[in-house]
Design brief:
- The chain is α+β, with helices and mostly antiparallel strands.
- It contains twelve helices and nine strands.
- It is globular and about 80 Å long.
Length: 397
């Protein structure tokens, strides 16, 4: 295993950081999250047109760059560093891989080049607060009960004249209020033979109602979608194993999320170190006190360890390598803890200004808390990884 990044990978990181430093400062960030979409459409166009970011991990035959999970994770590390409000996670990390894995030839040809060019945004809609379970990060429900179990609630799909119709509600959909295409997980077949399939729903479909929710993390906008007999197109065919595809997606999504959290943790730690070197108390910089040095040193070690785990998870998902099924969950747990620690230290060591709405420190803390609510919590990520690796099973059982 060669752990070094290639020149091309380093160039992706460097070019993306330069662009985000110019286009995604604190003022631009606040302006973007206050828009109805919750992200900067001009920035997204630049990321797509100049860097090909939405298609970074898509094959060239689909209009993409032909990269792997590793390149996407490096890009997510930089967007996480800037808390860039873009539909990258919802479109390129969660939705596009499902279209690639399950879509028919016509669906891939019609949708993936548009996603790769930045002309089409997409979102994954999973009923209930069960996104982490659907992606097999905190558990693996082989029957898909999280989608409604075929009972009332969740999202149901039934055949209709000329296709399918879906009915139900999904309360937490990343970029669900603005995405032009929804990939909706729904139960079909009734209670006795219920199974989960994935359906494509156009953002302007009749019977679809969408509103933006007030989220803890404004840089990660969410929408609530209501589906009232909305026309839908089956993704792939009825023989497709949607649950397995979602579980496979979990490993790559976890690696990208971990890299994103590490990027945010590293940035808030950099800002804190710079600040304590300037702020003075008792006639000397705060950063010169030994207690402050120890706190920052501990946070630095935690961030670097999380960065190594995130890089390994991305490499393992791209290979794939032994232990790939648990590397993502473990890296994500470690990255969440590192971001929460770095953000908390940032608020504390910035003193009074760190607690104000005007300062950016609270945005990183909200990212840590919001992501853990969506994809965690940490103890369940680790518990599921331990179960998958049979850590606590006795020998011979």
């Amino acid at each position: 295993m060669d752990a070094r990044f290639t020149d091309e990978q380093e160039e992706i990181r460097r070019t993306l950081r330069d662009l985000l430093d110019k286009r995604c400062g604190p003022q631009e960030l606040r302006a973007a999250v206050d828009t109805p979409a919750g992200h900067d459409r001009a920035l997204w166009t630049a990321l797509a047109g100049h860097l090909g970011l939405p298609g970074l991990a898509l094959p060239e035959t689909c209009g993409g760059v032909g990269g792997t999970v590793t390149e996407m994770a490096l890009a997510c590390e930089e967007t996480g560093r800037a808390l860039a409000p873009t539909p990258l996670l919802a479109t390129a990390v969660l939705a596009a891989p499902l279209l690639l894995a399950l879509g028919t030839g016509a669906q891939r040809a019609g949708l993936l080049p548009r996603i790769a060019s930045g002309g089409l945004t997409a979102a994954l809609a999973v009923p209930g607060p069960a996104l982490a379970t659907a992606l097999a990060l905190t558990g693996h429900d082989r029957r898909g009960q999280w989608a409604g179990g075929g009972r009332a609630g969740g999202v149901q799909a039934r055949r209709a004249e000329g296709g399918w119709q879906v009915y139900g509600q999904v309360d937490q959909v990343l970029d669900g209020h603005s995405a032009e295409l929804l990939v909706v997980a729904a139960h079909t077949g009734g209670f006795a033979r219920s199974r989960v399939l994935l359906f494509l729903v156009r953002g302007d479909a009749a019977g679809l109602t969408r509103v933006r929710r007030t989220a803890l993390d404004a840089t990660r906008p969410q929408g609530r979608i209501q589906l009232r007999d909305v026309p839908a197109e089956l993704l792939g065919d009825e023989a497709a194993d949607a649950l397995s595809a979602l579980a496979r997606l979990g490993g790559t999504a976890a690696a990208c999320l971990a890299a994103e959290a590490v990027g945010a943790a590293g940035r808030v730690l950099e800002r804190t170190v710079a600040y304590v070197g300037q702020r003075e108390q008792f006639g000397r910089p705060v950063g010169s006190f030994q207690a402050v040095k120890h706190r920052l040193a501990d946070a630095y070690v935690q961030v670097q360890a999380a960065r190594s785990a995130a890089y390994y998870a991305a490499w393992a998902a791209a290979a794939p390598a032994p232990g790939a099924e648990t590397a993502g969950s473990l890296a994500l747990a470690q990255a969440f803890e590192a971001l929460r620690r770095a953000a908390a230290e940032g608020i504390q060591l910035h003193g009074g200004i760190g607690f104000t709405w005007e300062h950016e420190a609270h945005l990183y803390f909200k990212r840590a808390a919001g992501d853990e609510l969506l994809f965690g919590p940490v103890h369940r990520l680790r518990a599921h990884a331990a179960d998958a690796a049979h850590v606590f099973e006795e020998a011979g059982t």
